[in-house]
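Lab meeting minutes (informal)
Scribe: AK
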Amino acid sequence: MVEAWYMDESAEDQRAPHRLQPNCPVSLEQLRRLGVVYRKLDADNYETDPCLKEIRQAENYSWMDIITICKDKLPNYEEKIKTFYEEHLHLDDEIRYILDGSGYFDVRDKDDKWIRISMEKGDMITLPAGIYHRFTLDENNYVKAMRLFVGEPVWTPYNRPADDFPARKQYLKLLSAEAQ
């Protein structure tokens, strides 16, 4: 089961857990209210997994690739890691499925506080278009992930502030509707 918590304000190594003391966990229901969708799948059999096939058909995830993030496999590794960790949003949902290894997705809550979501093998997450977020490896420095898209992939991150985009405005409407 995925684990999530509110982060401390430390600027130390981004790969550390950064838990508040005492720990302040975040439930799947709290994540759902932010528009974050979590699923647990069988990463050992992702190529033939009927659940993944069903999700891809239901959500119209027609495009996918696999990325391995580690020093030996990712060109411009240090630059990419810094880019992934800059707070940004996308105009489309971000869907990631961890096939091996582990890392963290950080998302902003409705009060602009950081929530860290620990992702490991078998975890799939969908971050809604317009949510401010970032990604980092954890202290294992390795993750292999499937990236899924509806239609052709769009890789463009829009660093904060990016509040004028329609995707951000739509996301804020979702948050206000959830609050009522």
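Next up, CB showed the second protein from the same session:
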Amino acid sequence: GWCPLSPAGAQTTQLLVKPPWTPAVLWDWVTLTRQGSGTSGATTWYKDGQRWWQGGPNHFIVTERGTYKCDRPGTGFSQSVKVLNDQLVLRVSARAVLEGDTVTLRCRG
């Protein structure tokens, strides 16, 4: 998955999504991995805007649809990742896409 670059010197919490396709769907066995500095025990995970798992691991396989993010003291919240449970999705690579790039779309179900 693609993680956006942060400004020089800034420390931020990032979420790595595997497999690196958007949207993420449950039937792909989506793994979310927290990246950033700090100790693993300080990670707080949120699901659908509510505190979901405090002191959780740095990564896990998603088993429920929802919108996930994590927080680390001193580095803040990650971007949100929405995981769907749809039967059919039109997908694109999660990497950054610029005008003029060739983009592969996949219809998956």
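CB comment: The chain has no helices and twelve strands.
No objections, moving on.
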